[in-house]
DJ-1/PfpI domain-containing protein
Amino acid sequence: MTSSPQVIDIGVLLIPGYQWLDAAGPVDYINNHSHAMVKTVAVPETLLAKAPVINWHYISSEGNLDQVPASSGPPHVPTTTFVDCPTIDYLLIPGPNPAVKLSAECTSFINSRFPTLKGLLTICTGSLAIAQTGVLDGVQSATNKMALKMLAQAGLLNKKVKWVWDKRFVVDGKIWSAAGITSGVDLAAEFSRVHFDPELVELVKTIMEYIPNPAQPDPFAYLFDGVSLD
């Protein structure tokens, strides 16, 4: 008897002006492991059975279904609101302008959902935005280095977070955070390696013709030469 595929629900929080690749890169990389994508490739049924069903839920940070503009590309149409969002296993936060202020409703949504999440994934400045909610307090987190450097030099850094400047991505408990924009793809690759079948992971790397970068060494760590986070 064939068992049913694993079902995973992932939310993507759309903050106006979010970096397009912050969302598109990780979403597409992870989704390529899904049952819907793998079945389009000639693979044995035993491997297809290991591919999870992945449901994506695009959540507007404005609490409505109005189109959300990204840094480039077409406006994104949310599929759900804070009120109607179903139960999700993971929440992915692509990075917005680092100066963005989250609404009280958005903060409440994140704080209410965080305890039941299996994982929170932030890309680039997404961690700077989510730090406003308090869920990153005491947590090691990566973020965009240029933004982190500017905030540190201006004395505006949220020091409740243990900011990491010399890694492309960091995993601390159920917090997964990526540094610069393209680091999000490497974070997605690491997430996939941890959560999906090894044979499936190798198949996707081959299809995408991509060799994931490790967390270290980080070729952009030099940006923090002479900069203190204290």
Notes: The radius of gyration is 18 Å. Residues 156 and 179 are 18 Å apart (CA to CA). The mean pLDDT is 95. The first strand starts at residue 7 and ends at 14.
